[in-house]
Each structure stands twice: as structure tokens, then as C-alpha cells.
């Protein structure tokens, strides 16, 4: 029996090593390529690390402020993702409170109907969403990426289920003392749901930062693009094997903020796997 357990453990380790290699090798190759000259890229072929390390690719990318202002794109993405995340936390916490603590006719029917609709592929909503954004005059503005997705049903579902684990006796005791719904929400519920809000905030930030298709559709102004839409533009500028090092250095710069976020908040990403109520037993 112990031998079977040992074999299964080794197989699990082997599987994890293979998966880690599949994810890690392209990243290492990308970082290495960003420090290689164009001559080395063409002549050496596939190499994880460059023969001669250079920083010229990064210098040229950062100096190009006319056709590819990547620093401006990074700032646009930081502003959009941060604002979107803050508003998401406000919206989903209030909405989750309504669906879990307040009683009104058709509450559960409305919730599960919206939850079912959210399972439709996002591509179905692209044309209607763009039409709405166009009517509101938000094309080529940060609001085109900030507002859509604020009330994501996935996040609301997580918050609602988390709140359901908080005893209703806390609400009832507060009402006896004269507290209204806003007081209960802000002073009792909000501090208790902090773990799930942090998790939702992290995923909202990374989701907004990495969003690619939607910004490509709603942005045509180079100066106002987020970095993901800008990288597509760079494929035309640096692509076709003309300046692969500069293209790759731009991609590496684009992932640095999310890497920093992960290193400082990785315990919250891990906690998302084992998320439960703020009130135990």
C-alpha cells in the first residue's frame, strides 16, 4: 500500500514538473530573446539564453514615444485596471449584500437568471456592447474598459456565497440596536468579507490588464491604448522577424506589473483555492 502511494506521489511530482516546464520555458526564452541582438536571433535560432546580453532593445523601445509610446500604454493600463478594480469591489460587495442579506420578491430567480446568462460566451456581447459604448461616446476613452464587467456575475456569486456563511444573527442584533442596511453592510459585513473581496480584486485587476480583444475593438487612438492593444500594434512595427528583440522586450515590460502584483499578493491567489466564510464554526 505504501509503495502504491509512493509511486502515485512520484507520478504527481513528474506531472507537475512537466507542466511547470511547459509554462516556464517560453517565459525564459522570451526574457532571453529580449536581451539578444537581431543578428543573434536570426543566426543562432532557438536558445534559452543569449550569447551576448544587450539592453539596446529596451532602450530603443523606451525611446520610441511617437509610433509606440509603451510607457504611456503602461500608464493607461495601470489607470484602467486600478479604477476598474476599485469600482468592481464596490459594486460586487453591495450587490452581494442585496442578494444574500436582503429579502425581496424574485430575488433568487433574478440572481440565477443573471448567473445563467453570464455563461453565454463574451463574444456574443461584443457588437451590442460596442454599440452602447459608441452611443455613450466612450470609444477611445478609459470608460470603455472600466465600466463593462463591473457587475460580473462570477464575482457576485463568490461574494454572495461568502456572505451566506455569515450568521444572520449579526444583522438581527444590529437592527435591534437601530442599525439600517447601510450600517450593517459598512460596519459589520464589509470587514468580514475582506478576504473574498481581495481575491476578486486581484482577479479583476489581472483580467482587466490582460484583456486583449475588447481594447483592440474600442481603441484606435495610439496615445490612449492600453498596453495589450499596443502590443498588437507593435507586431506591425517590430514584427516579421525585423526587430524580434524589441518586440519581445515590449512584451516583457507589459508583464512586469502583473508579476510584481503576484509576488506581493500570491498568498491571496492561493487562498482563492480554499476560500470559505469569514465566520468559522
UniProtKB/TrEMBL annotation:
Is Nucleus one of the keywords UniProt gives this record?
no
Q: What kind of membrane protein is this, topologically?
A: Multi-pass membrane protein
> Does the UniProt entry include the keyword Membrane?
yes
Q: Which CDD domains does the annotation name?
A: TM_PBP2
Q: Which GO terms describe its cellular component?
A: plasma membrane
InterPro entries according to UniProt = MetI-like, MetI-like_sf
Q: Which GO terms fall under biological process for this protein? A: transmembrane transport
User: Which subcellular locations apply to this protein?
Assistant: Cell membrane
Please provide the record's keywords in A-Z order. Cell membrane, Membrane, Sugar transport, Transmembrane, Transmembrane helix, Transport
Give the residue spans that cross the bilayer: 12-32, 73-97, 109-130, 142-163, 184-205, 243-265
Where is it predominantly found? membrane
Do you know which PROSITE patterns this protein is assigned to? Answer: ABC_TM1
Domain (ABC transmembrane type-1): give its ranges: 74-265
What the record says about family reads: Belongs to the binding-protein-dependent transport system permease family.
- Name of the featured protein: Multiple sugar transport system permease protein
- Source organism per entry reads Gracilibacillus halotolerans
Amino acid at each position: 500500500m505504501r509503495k502504491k502511494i509512493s509511486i502515485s506521489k512520484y507520478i504527481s511530482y513528474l506531472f507537475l514538473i512537466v507542466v511547470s516546464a511547459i509554462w516556464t520555458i517560453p517565459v525564459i526564452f522570451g526574457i532571453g530573446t529580449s536581451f539578444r541582438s537581431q543578428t543573434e536571433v536570426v543566426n543562432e535560432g532557438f536558445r534559452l539564453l543569449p550569447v551576448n546580453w544587450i539592453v539596446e532593445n529596451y532602450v530603443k523601445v523606451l525611446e520610441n514615444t511617437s509610433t509606440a509610446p509603451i510607457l504611456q500604454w503602461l500608464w493607461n493600463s495601470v489607470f484602467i485596471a486600478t479604477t476598474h478594480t476599485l469600482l468592481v469591489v464596490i459594486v460586487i460587495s453591495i450587490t452581494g449584500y442585496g442578494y444574500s442579506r436582503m429579502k425581496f420578491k424574485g430575488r433568487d430567480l433574478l440572481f440565477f437568471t443573471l448567473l445563467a446568462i453570464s455563461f453565454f460566451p463574451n463574444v456574443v456581447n461584443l457588437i451590442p456592447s460596442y454599440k452602447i459604448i459608441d452611443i455613450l461616446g466612450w470609444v477611445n476613452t478609459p470608460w470603455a474598459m472600466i465600466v463593462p464587467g463591473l457587475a460580473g456575475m462570477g464575482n457576485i456569486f463568490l461574494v454572495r456565497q461568502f456572505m451566506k456563511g455569515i450568521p444572520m444573527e449579526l444583522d438581527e442584533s444590529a437592527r435591534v440596536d437601530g442599525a439600517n442596511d447601510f450600517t450593517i453592510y459598512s460596519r459589520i459585513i464589509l470587514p468580514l468579507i475582506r478576504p473574498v473581496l481581495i481575491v476578486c480584486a486581484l482577479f479583476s485587476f489581472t483580467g482587466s490588464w490582460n484583456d486583449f480583444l475588447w481594447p483592440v475593438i474600442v481603441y484606435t487612438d495610439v496615445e490612449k491604448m492600453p498596453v495589450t492593444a499596443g502590443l498588437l500594434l507593435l507586431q506591425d512595427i517590430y514584427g516579421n522577424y525585423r526587430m524580434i528583440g524589441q518586440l519581445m522586450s515590449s512584451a516583457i515590460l507589459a508583464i512586469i506589473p502583473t508579476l510584481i502584483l503576484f509576488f506581493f499578493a500570491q498568498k491571496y491567489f492561493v487562498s482563492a483555492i480554499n476560500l470559505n466564510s469569514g465566520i468559522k464554526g
